[in-house]
Amino acid sequence: MEGFRPPAVAGSFYPAVADTLRSQLTEYLALPGWRSCAPRALVVPHAGYAYSGPVAASGYRTLGRYRNRYSRVIVIGPAHRVPVRGIAVSGADAFRTPLGDVPVDARLRELATMLPNVNVSDLAHEAEHCIEVQLPFLQMCLEEFTILPLLTGSASAEDVAELLSELWGGPETLIIVSTDLSHNHTLGTARVFDAETARAILALNPRVIGDRGACGAVALNGLLLLAAERGMSVRKLDLRTSADMGGDERRVVGYGAFAFCLSVRCAEEARADG
Helices 157-166 and 217-229: crossing angle, nearest 10°? Predict the structure, then answer.
């Protein structure tokens, strides 16, 4: 595919009018939060902004002081609408949002497709929201950057860890894992499941996180494998549910934001927080 991938959920998951979208994101990003080290990876939710926007913003706020550092962003999440063999990358030249076009990194795509479990599928990306909703946040927080949009299907966590390791690069590369947490439980049950998932993330333990704990469990667990291998530290930034944002307490979706760093200072702060 050549050309741009048009927005699929503008006007439903987030505002379709640029000024309205920019105003909403400015409000979210102005909220207080942790802003210490430059993260190498973020875990952020991908629901409609009315529900998960403030939680996602707690992750993206960590980028503000480093907006010129990152020039490549790998965004990986689950394919919700189309069955995917392995991991699917978009063949588009750019992804369009109301804030403009975000170029796809052709070199990273070429490197990714050298692995046997990665293939090009524009159909998988056509109506998918999990990558699209991250892009306006990135456009607000970074200067010039390219993306590599990836969707997981039948891949394993080991496949994801191998791919991320191949694409690791240097401090110019940021990894975004796009995932919500528990789905469609009562509020009490959701909080139990989400706390369990958060503990596993903080312990860099992918073995206990399944589909019950996160819709993007494969991508999340791949990141945890890589983080443990590279000695990264992780910090919980926010943990809420759709009910906390005014949703139905009988059918709750969980949202969490976590920052992964290589900084010694970040590791010390994370240990101090327990």
Answer: 60
Query: Are 71 and 205 in contact, with CB atoms under 8 Å apart?
Result: no
Domain 4-272 architecture: 3-Layer(aba) Sandwich (3.40)
Gap between the Cα atoms of 179 and 265, Å rounded = 27
Distance in angstroms between the alpha carbons of the first and the last residue of the chain: 48
What count of Cα atoms within 13 Å lies in the side-chain half-sphere of residue 262?
11
Which among 3, 182, 176, 175 has a CA at the least distance from the CA of 91? 3
Other CB atoms within a 10 A radius of the CB of residue 8 amount to 18
pLDDT in tens, 28-68: 999 877 767 899 999 999 999 999 999 999 999 999 889 99
Per-residue DSSP letter, 258: E
List, in sequence order, every beta strand (DSSP E) within the chain.
4-5, 41-44, 72-78, 87-89, 94-97, 100-103, 118-120, 146-152, 173-178, 183-185, 233-241, 252-261
Q: Where are the beta strands (DSSP E) in 169-251?
A: 173-178, 183-185, 233-241
Structural domain boundaries in the chain: 4-272
How many CB atoms lie under 10 A from the CB of residue 86? 18
- pTM as predicted: 0.94
